[in-house]
Amino acid sequence: MKGIILAGGSGTRLYPMTIALSKQLMPVYDKPMIYYPLATLMRAGIREVLIITTPRDSGLFQKLLGDGSQLGCRFEYAVQSHPRGIADAFNIGRLFIGEDNVALILGDNIFYGSSLHQQLSERLNPDGGVIFAYHVNNPRRYGVVNLDATGQVDSIEEKPENPRSNYAIPGIYFYDNEVLDIVKGIQPSHRGELEITDVNKAYLKMGKLHVSVLDRGTAWLDTGTVSSLMQASQFVEVIENRQGQKIGAIEEAAFEMGYIGEAQLRQLAEPLRSSGYGEYLLSLIQHT
């Protein structure tokens, strides 16, 4: 399975902070925001990732992340000239995806949980589409999935006035290669965008949409507003300071997944020692 991170958009809800800088490059506590979804894909076993950005920001992402070889991965880059919807990522990434399955994660979504990566890695070869369900207090703000008595998807609604369930659909989706044909057949919504909900409904109509419920020990944070960005930073700070372990460290993910060895981790850590981040990475070697 290949991965796509959608890190485009204008970030108007974070103005004036994002007038000159992509929100996915802004810090969430001690790391750039994009580190978190990238680490999620890497820990799920996905090493080939396409990062979709705005034309303005592409060079900055490439300077930050490079081609991925330093992490034992392969990163490619593409641009979305203007917002055309989440599902447009599959059109942009068509050549990158090729004949493989694909995972799409939004660049401003942060996931954390002890069982999360195993849950994701078990879905790398889906027969159809896989969405994830997360119990929320206010489902009206999200796409909502309703499950029948057997735990199968019964319906999907986008920001419903009267939700049928409290299960929101977070910003991570797994699909087989058929998604490329499905995207060809969907039409732009009234917003002029290709909606990911329409992709999921197409799989549902075919009887090939599956759901995986994220357990209560998993945290899902959306950093699209000033308030939620601050809350995410505070969450990461509390967990890291309490546990002494970092969330979303891509170098640590690469090391623990066996993509790189001790020598490469040491090489990545040395330039970062003055911030304390490098010292943390070096401590991983000492504890192996």
TrEMBL record:
Keywords: Magnesium, Metal-binding, Nucleotidyltransferase, Transferase. It comes from the Bacteria. It is an enzyme of class 2 (transferase). Residues 2-237 form the Nucleotidyl transferase domain. Its cofactor is Mg(2+). One of its GO terms (molecular function) is glucose-1-phosphate thymidylyltransferase activity. Its EC number is 2.7.7.24. Catalyzes the formation of dTDP-glucose, from dTTP and glucose 1-phosphate, as well as its pyrophosphorolysis. NCBIfam families: rmlA. PANTHER family: GLUCOSE-1-PHOSPHATE THYMIDYLYLTRANSFERASE, GLUCOSE-1-PHOSPHATE THYMIDYLYLTRANSFERASE 1. Belongs to the glucose-1-phosphate thymidylyltransferase family. This is Glucose-1-phosphate thymidylyltransferase. It comes from Robiginitalea biformata (strain ATCC BAA-864 / DSM 15991 / KCTC 12146 / HTCC2501). The lineage of its organism: Bacteria, Pseudomonadati, Bacteroidota, Flavobacteriia, Flavobacteriales.
